[in-house]
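ping. complex inputs:
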Amino acid sequence: MKNLLFKEFKLNFSPFYILFILLPAMVLIPNYPYLVGFIYIPISFIHIFNGGRENSEMYYTCLLPVKKTDIVKSKFIFVIIYELMSVIVAIPFLFLNGVIGFHNEAGCQANWALLGIVFFMYGIFNLIFLSMFFKTCVKTGIPFLTASITAILLAEILDVLMIAIPFLKDNINVSIISGNVSGQLAALLIGIIIFISANLLAYSISKKEIGKVEL
Amino acid sequence: MTAKAYMFATVKSDLRVRLLNMENEYILSVDNLCKTYPSFYLDHLSFKVKKGTIMGFIGRNGAGKTTTLKSLVNLIRKDSGTVEMFNNDFFLNETQDKQRLSFLLGGIDYYQRTKIKNLTSVTRRFYKNWDENKYQHYLKAFELDENKSIKQLSNGMKMKYQLAVNLSHNAELLIFDEPTSGLDPVSRDELLDLFLKIVSDGSRSILFSTHITSDLEKCADDITYISKGKILLSLPEKEFISSFTKFTGKKEDLDEKTEKSAMSIKEFKGNIEGVCWAKDKTENNMLRYEKPTLEDIMVFYERSQEENEESII
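pong. complex structure:
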């Protein structure tokens, strides 16, 4: 597994993608839909996976002495590491936003609940994109469109609800520094649970699908 | 133990050793391999590759060579049949067997813009038996510059790079799909010489597909011929060739019996030439009989298949 992950980062990961990991710093923009800073992560997967396809990555990997299921596992771990990096990078900026005292009128505040929505979005994206991708290991267009539209739309709905529903606005959509943290952390926990469940489900689907793929 | 019982035990033990040797003699055994597509199918393919030999897998374009080779290494899912590699069921020991296997489909079409040294730094990690000294030796011997990207290599050099990598992890079975296509005659000759060197110590075997029959005449020990998804013959090269007879002569000298025996006959400027199975050979003193080349066999056999199709139409 260690070797497969090394392969992912050495051959498939361009330093350019670090830019996308840094984009959650956009939470420092006053009155801005902060989810946008995280949307670039799923979007970058179309480039990463298309790059792999153009490099006949699956063909190269399948000939190495590894199990096909390990290829799927390594891809999932790679995707999850990339996503988690964006979340980790965001944390200091969330606190900085709170210290400055920005109040966001354009969506969810830069707080723990925002990360809950981000985990939810990543989970839905992975579930749809990865399980559809591993059906062919070649086609990325339709899986990406389906996954990104669904995940972004659902996440944006949650983002709007944070302002529209008074209970959420008062208890969750509050400052990370001065607001009620327990509500935010509950939202984050729900997001993490959905993220883990969606990835486990996507992995079990993808594991079966790759067995049927013909290269 | 009585003398009789001792003798029986010795014979039994000897037989077991001989059976074991016979088993070990084959590095690859394919038995009744089947794969069906809507418009094409591999029909119960069976053949064996001996240790220390080169097997040429021939057939015309679309005969099923690549599909067969991909099915052997699970790139394509077989419908039925068994593939034994290194005396193991490949599909049960895929990861372990791939440590001892090298599979190359034509030139390298992956990671074209990646430098050789970066690609190797990834590949080498997966092989337990990777020998860095050997790899460096092959790089020098093949004059490969590690700082070049795959795209910058000529087809011949790409092949050499593949060989360097695969020989450095001590692959015992090398499967190549059309390794010589796209190479100039000099590079092709060099590659075939390399093949001979690779198998010369008796521990490694090569199975390679081609439609360039002259390649096989240079280096193949055994020939497996595939046509329309079926194995026509799988024999040592000499036996393969002696299974057929070629005849040439004047058109007017062709008798009905010879015409019927021939797989196919070509006519040109009043002359004829044809190939028939050696068992069907006729005795016509007016015709000249000779050993066919692999190309003759392939051309006349495939013509006969087309003629059959035309007659159906």
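The longest strand of chain B covers residues 26-36.
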